[in-house]
Design a protein that fits this description.
Number of helices: 14
Oligomer: single chain
Number of strands: 0
Largest sheet: none
Radius of gyration: 24 Å
Distance between the termini: 90 Å
Helix content: over 70%
Structural class: mainly alpha
Order of helices and strands: HHHHHHHHHHHHHH
Shape: globular
Number of domains: 2
């Protein structure tokens, strides 16, 4: 093993030799190395978060035919640092009657819930935090911490608008977690594992990206992820005309900054999981074998593309009503995800041992059929609704005429 072939493990082994040379036990040395590794990973995620602030502002500017940050540094690249200084200098306010402990803990927990997800992200074949055999369950559990932080922020602020925004956000996150969990089960069924590393490895060396095998599951996961992020069109937690700014309305300075940083990093992290679960993660036609850092770059590019898609949806699709949002989930997305899960499970068992191209083709065609049947059912339902409403509209028009 050399530094060039495996820099992470090379540095870890060098530190282990240094610590044991100082007389430390191997257990203590490993604990310190793991702590340092976690610190490096968190530092990288936070630096990436600063870069995402610039990316987000430049992308939304292009969508709205503006220039975006272009004064502080080349192309405005240093604008996020100016924003950080501004947030630090702003007055730190705690509302009268707020639960101070819960109020101050909520933004920290919000960002922590996102950073915890990076522990299981395989950036490359040898660059990852932990290879959990229940990593997808860990993903859902860490997301629940984010839900908890939002309800903590809304309840502790002693503000009815913040509480209403928190309730809306929790209703959305809890509802859309169901189709998300079902979508996560589909890669689990195909690979027979909940490990994100195993799912990534299954999409290379003769395998195919799961986007081809399960395109409907990919779309369901993307929609559920946007809803859990609370981004448009599901951003009912901050419907300005109704609840001003949502659960974080009372937060100022860096406390608000932590919520904002957590949202951006969470969106990028979901782009990473979209890449891992359905687009091969760090694998790309064998290029990842050139060097671990090449695999990490491939993963980050794929995650950034997923993040761009999430931004694209946010800045082009208008906000929907809360009843429409929940109805869309319970009446359409959840039943569709369950149907896709059952079809995938049955075909996966029936096609066991078949050629890869046969398996991929049959799975893809099955998704096409399910999608087509879904559209036909929706068309029939819309026609029946129009026919039911036509007499009412005609009677109203006749009454107005007379």
């Amino acid at each position: 093993m050399t530094f060039w072939s495996d820099p992470i493990n090379f540095v870890a082994q060098w530190l282990r030799d240094v610590f044991t040379g100082w007389g430390w036990s191997s257990g203590l040395a490993n604990a310190i190395i793991l702590l340092l590794g976690a610190l490096v990973l968190v530092s990288f995620a936070m630096l990436l978060d600063i870069f995402l602030v610039w990316i987000e502002r430049k992308v939304v500017a292009r969508f709205q035919d503006r220039l975006g940050p272009n004064r502080v540094g080349p192309f405005g690249i240093f604008q996020p640092f100016a924003d950080i200084v501004k947030l630090i200098l702003k007055e730190d306010i705690t509302p009268v009657g707020a639960d101070k402990l819960v109020y101050n803990l909520a933004p920290i927990l919000s960002l922590t819930s996102v950073l915890l997800l990076w522990a299981i992200l395989p950036l490359a074949a040898t660059i990852y935090g932990a290879d959990l055999n229940v990593a997808l369950l860990y993903l859902v559990a860490a997301g629940a911490l984010g839900t908890l932080s939002i309800i903590m922020a809304g309840w502790s602020s002693n503000n009815k608008y913040a509480l209403l925004g928190a309730f809306r956000m929790v209703a959305s996150m809890v509802s859309y977690e169901i189709p998300m969990v079902v979508a996560l089960l589909i890669p689990t069924i195909i690979t027979g594992s909940m490990s994100v590393r195993e799912i990534t490895l299954a999409q290379g060396d003769g395998g195919v990206w799961f986007f081809i095998v399960a395109p409907l599951a990919t779309v369901i996961f993307l929609i559920s992820a946007i809803a859990e992020l609370g981004r448009s069109p599901f951003d009912l937690n901050e419907a300005e005309s109704e609840i001003v700014a949502g659960f974080h309305i009372e937060y100022t300075g860096m406390k608000f900054g932590l919520f904002y940083a957590g949202e951006l990093l969470h969106a990028f992290t979901f782009g990473g999981f979209l890449a891992i679960l359905f687009f091969g993660g760090y694998r790309f036609f064998g290029l990842e074998n050139l060097h671990p850092l090449v695999g990490a770059i491939i993963f980050l590019v794929k995650a950034l593309i997923g993040y761009w898609v999430i931004m694209w949806v946010k800045y082009t699709v208008p906000r929907i009503r809360i009843d429409h949002m929940l109805g869309f989930n319970w009446k359409f997305l959840t039943p569709l995800s369950l149907v896709v899960l059952m079809v995938t499970a049955v075909l996966n068992q029936a096609l066991a041992g078949s050629e890869t191209w046969v398996y991929a083709l049959v799975m893809f065609l099955a998704n096409v059929v399910v999608g087509w049947l879904t559209l036909e059912i929706l068309r029939a339902y819309s026609r029946s609704q129009r026919k039911a409403e036509e007499p009412v509209v005609e009677s109203v028009a006749q009454a107005a005429h007379h």
